Every structure is written in C-alpha cells, then in structure tokens.
Amino acid sequence: MANSPSGDSMTDRLVRVLETFTPTRTVQTSAEIGRRAGLPSSSAHRIVAELVDAGLLERDESRGIRVGMRLWELATRSSGALRLRQVALPFMERIQARVGEHTQLAILEQDEALFLERLSHPDAVTNITRVAGRLPLNASSSGLVLLAYADPEVRDRVLSGRLIPLTPATITDPATLRRTLGEIRLQGHVVAPGYIEDVSTGLAVPVRNAAGAVVAALSVVLPRDAPTESALAALHRAARDIERAL
Amino acid sequence: MANSPSGDSMTDRLVRVLETFTPTRTVQTSAEIGRRAGLPSSSAHRIVAELVDAGLLERDESRGIRVGMRLWELATRSSGALRLRQVALPFMERIQARVGEHTQLAILEQDEALFLERLSHPDAVTNITRVAGRLPLNASSSGLVLLAYADPEVRDRVLSGRLIPLTPATITDPATLRRTLGEIRLQGHVVAPGYIEDVSTGLAVPVRNAAGAVVAALSVVLPRDAPTESALAALHRAARDIERAL
C-alpha cells in the first residue's frame, strides 16, 4: 500500500493501531490510539474513521473506540489454527470434566506460546493464561513442549536469547533448559511446578498432525501439590484422540 | 489512509483482501486474491506482501496464502464480545453435557446472527452453524430471538427486506414473522422446528446484560422430533447464570 511521508506502509500503521488494544485496554479515544501508535493526530483520526467505516473498529455510545466484531469474524472464519481448536474442544472438555482445573491449547507463534483456547472452572486454581494471550516458551508447560519439538533454529534462538524468570522456579539457565527439553522429548510430556506461579503446576503434552509434526501443546494447570498421574494420562489420551480427529 | 487512483481507501482494499478468505477457501494465491478482491495484479501482490510481512497473512510451504494467527490474536484479545463468550463457555458446557447436542452463542451483527461459539458432540444431529459463521435472522432460532429483542428500526428493516427460506418451514411472510417475534417476547424463548434444516429443531433464549438489554442468544439444536422441555429449562437456567456472571 502507499507509504506515508515517514516511510512506513499503511499496513504497518494499521497493525500499530490494532496493537494499541490489549486485554486490559479495550476502549480508547482516537487521540489515545494515535499517541500509543506513534501517529500524528490527523492521521490517527483518519485511519480510525476508515476502520470504523469498514467495521474493523467500532465506536461505542460514548465515542470510545473498540475492536470490531467484523475483524474477529474475518480473522477467525478461515483460520487453520482455529480448526485445530474446534477439533480439540470436545476432548478438552472431557479432560476438564475429569481433572477439574484449567485446560489449555497453545501453538508456537513468533517464539512464544499463543493460547488458542482455555477452559476453566469457576473455582479452579489461579491461572494467568488468557485466550489469545501469550506466555514465554521457557516458563509455561505449553511453551516448554512447543520448544522441545520446535525447529532447531527456533530452539537455538530462544536458548541464546534472554530467558526471563516469572518465579524463582522458572528455568533461566540455557544448559538446564536444553537438558529439560531433551527429557521432554524422551518422556513425551512436561511437569512444570511453580514455573509460572508459585501456587500451581503446569502439565503439557504435544499434539501432532498427520505427518507426525508437533502442531500444538495441550496442557492443564493443577494446584502446586496435586498428584499429576491421572491428569497426565488424561492429557495423553486426549492428544491421541485429537490427532485421530484431525 | 491514502486513496488509490480508483478512489477506494487502503482500508477498503484491505477488507476486500480479507473477505476473499472463507471457511471453505482458506488458502489462495496472490493472483486469486487479487482477482476475487477486484484489485489489479500488481496492487494485489504488494498488499499481500505487506500483510505477510506484518503477520496478518501467512505464506505456507507451497507459497499459498492463509489468514495469519497474528490477525486472530489482535482481533480476539481485546474484544468485548469474546469476553461474553468466555463467561458463557462453562455454562454452555453444562448445557451440552445435559442436552447432548449442539450448544451455541450468537450476537446480532449487521442484520444477521453471528455465532461466537458452538459446542458439539461428535455424534450430534447435523448442524450448519460454524464459529464466526452467520445465519439469517428469520431462519435460525438464535436469529429469531435476536430479532425479537432488536431495536425497532432493525426489526422494520429486516421485515421489509427479503426473507429467504432455507427450508419449506422457514418463516418468510412478514406478518407471520412479526407475530412470531411478539410470541418470543411473551414466552422468553423460541422453538424453531425445521426452519434451518428439515431434520433438526432449534431452541433459543435471550441473554441480557446488567442493564437488561439483550446482548446474545443462547441456543441448542435437537433432532426434529426430540422433546424440548428439559432443553428449554437448561437454556433458561444457563442464561440466568451467564447474566449473573457477566
């Protein structure tokens, strides 16, 4: 698309506008969007007006701007990963009915774990995961599984980058992480006690496509001291069921 | 954003590109996208390349173009309607465990019923609904509930437009439809036998926000001749639970 005087493309500007919306910032004014996207005020107003006309953004009663349902619809209806999520959902429900905590499905996206789905019981243990939210590969159980089976170049890039701890238990030493990833490939699952939050343990298994490549991680979150055996068995069984259904 | 020689804005072109992707057409070449979006080939290639760079579209191994996960993530993470879906999900699971067929959540979007969620059992009765798919307001049980409680101007617009039958049972007569909408408001639910498919019956109830406005329809799909009483009771109970949780 045409470039602005500053040289960034219109697509870049659009992405910067959309990126100003977050799970905790769902309504903004045009001026706030412009400031956060680093756009001149007149450009911000024009872009927002066009996106509202197209239904990609929506104006609420008090003139606040929200992400539009039309954008969600266009992004969702033809997405391959969302087909994975739809196939997995009944089996995730079965895990959750049995294990009784959070059940999650994540994929590898730009060197992070992106969560496609999360089922939760109202009285389940605390969990910071959100649908369409992300967690670091070295900290979340889903991330560890995705990293264990990722292309070697992804693994090398993540291992040579900054490994940020979310708790004192998060693995941040590259050698320890590399050894852990080898153990995950050997065992076919991970148990991650307190890596994300002190009070909880994450368990995750890989989900493979017809060609045998790992395309997702299926995980549950348990209280830190809960037994893991029956939850791991439920995860392995569900992963096999999802693979058959794919 | 800057306008092209033909006068359509870059946002219009972007939307036209995204609209070429559908649930049954998830991979296309740049040339196909350009032809379906009505864009000159050089423009189509440039726009697609920019959208791929931004992660909003993705190129697969065989150079086909798909909708990117980044677009889904940006569209989903700050969407208000998806918060509704996340709140409703545990209660929808409970309905489905009890009723054993499809359970769905829909909102009114541009004079159609847009489906935010659908839970299905593998052996459930046939159902043409898709997540992020749409159905006409006069045909689906969800649509009838949404139309019954819509603003009068929406109702007048739909009633004076074309009412397309999906089966011989679909209501297409404006006077009959207006009377049916009145009955829905009186009873607080709808039973729609064979309106969408001959073999199934849809049941739907409204879901209200804290201010009492109807924001969604909660529905189940049953085999055509199944008893409806316990499913209706489960729907009413779940709608109340969702309203309390919102």
From TrEMBL, chains A, B:
PROSITE patterns attached to this UniProt entry: HTH_ICLR, ICLR_ED
Source species, domain of life: Bacteria
Ranges for domain HTH iclR-type: 8-69
Membrane-spanning residues: none
InterPro entries assigned: GAF-like_dom_sf (IPR029016), HTH_MetabolicPath_Reg (IPR050707), Tscrpt_reg_IclR_C (IPR014757), Tscrpt_reg_IclR_N (IPR005471), WH-like_DNA-bd_sf (IPR036388), WH_DNA-bd_sf (IPR036390)
Annotated keywords: DNA-binding, Transcription, Transcription regulation
GO annotation, biological process: negative regulation of DNA-templated transcription
Segments forming domain IclR-ED: 70-246
GO molecular function, one term: DNA-binding transcription factor activity
Protein name: HTH-type transcriptional regulator KipR
Natural source organism: Microbacterium lemovicicum
